[in-house]
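Protein record
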Amino acid sequence: MKDWLKNHPKAYILGLILLYAIILLGVDIYYPSFKATNEAQQEEKVSPDDELAQLNQKLTEKEIGVADLKDQRMQGVTLADVQAHHPQYSLTELIQAIPTEDQPGDWRLKVVNPLFPLTEPVDIQTATASNGQLYDERIEDPLNHLMEAAQKAGYPLTIVSAYRDVDSQEKNRQSMIQMYQAGGASLEEAKAKTDAYVAPTHASEHSTGLALDLLGTDWVQAKRGLETDYAKEASAQWLRDHAQDYGFILRYLEDKEAVTGYNFEPWHYRYVGVPTAQYIKRYQLTLEEYLVLLAARQGQKLTYQVDPSLPTD
C-alpha cells in the first residue's frame, strides 16, 4: 500500500479531496434537517396555561367530599396547584411517568389528613416491632429491609411511634394540649400548637398502620424526641436519601404545609411501595399531589365539596 501511494501521489490527493467533499455534503444535508426538526419540536411545545387548559378539557370531573375546616389551613389539591408547585416539570411529563401498576383506591395510597378523616376504624392485621410498636403486617418485609440497610450503613434506627387507633390518637392529642397549657398557653393557643404536629383524632395517618416515626437510635439515647432539628442528623439524611428504595416516603415536606396540613416532620415516613416512592422522591411530590396526578391519568379531574358528615375533631 505504501509503495502504491508513493507511485500514485496525485490519486491519493484526489481521494482526500473527494472524501472531504462527501463530508461537507453530508453536513450540509444533515444540519438543515436537524435544525428544522428541532425548530418544529420547539414550536410544538405549549405554555403551562395551555397545557393545563387542554388537560382539563379531556378530564371528567370527580367530586370528592372533604371535612369542613373552618381555619382553611389546607385546601384540596388541584392540577393547577401541582403545576404551580413544580414549574420545572410539565404536567404531561409527570402523568406519563406514574408507575403503571398504581391505581386509585390501592391500600398503599390511602390518604388520611384533616380534609380526608377516617369515618370508620381501619381493619388491619398488625406485626410487632422488637420494641412493641405495631404496624400493618403487609409492610413488615420492606420495613425490616429498611432497618437492616440503615444498620449496615452505620445509622441504626428506632421506631418511636407507629400504629395508633382513634382512641389512642385522642389521648395523644389531649396529652399535648395539657403540656402546652402547663407551659402557660391558653386552651386556644394549646390547641393551635397541637394541630401543627398532632393530627385530629380521626385524621392521623398512624391509624392506617402504614406510617412510622423513625429516629436515629443515638438521638433517642440522647433523650431527644420528635424535633425538627433531627433533620440535621446523619441518620435523618440517610433516611431522606434512601427510604424510597424500600417503599417509604418522607410524608410531610418543608413548605408543603398547605398541601399536607402539617409542618415539616423529618421523622415521619409512610409506606407507598417502591416504584411509587421512587417516583414521588424524584419529583419531590406529596402523596396528595401524587393522587391528583394519578386521577388525571385515569381521566378524572378531582374537585372538592364540603361534606358536613365528616369529622373535624
